[in-house]
Design goal:
single chain, alpha+beta, 5-stranded antiparallel β-sheet
Length: 74
């Protein structure tokens, strides 16, 4: 019985460790759209870590006419 409990607790801790951003470089990012330099709207915020975060921060703004869409991270 103790072995099963130890296995279950170990499994939960390992699953938490692999899905956690603790100890990693993480930021919350969202896409924000501006029209003629004025705020228009924004998308949902999501947390990105390490490689995904680097890829988002490296993206250039998307500009189409007077509309500019950019990633903003906190």
């Amino acid at each position: 019985m103790k072995r099963k409990v130890l296995f279950a607790v170990s499994f939960v801790l390992i699953a938490w460790a692999f899905n956690s951003c603790e100890g990693l470089t993480c930021k919350t990012c969202k896409q924000v759209t501006y029209i003629d330099g004025d705020y228009d709207h924004e998308g949902d915020s999501y947390e990105y870590c390490d490689a995904e975060l680097l890829a988002i921060e490296a993206m250039d703004d998307f500009i189409l006419g007077s509309t500019r869409t950019a990633w903003e991270c906190n």
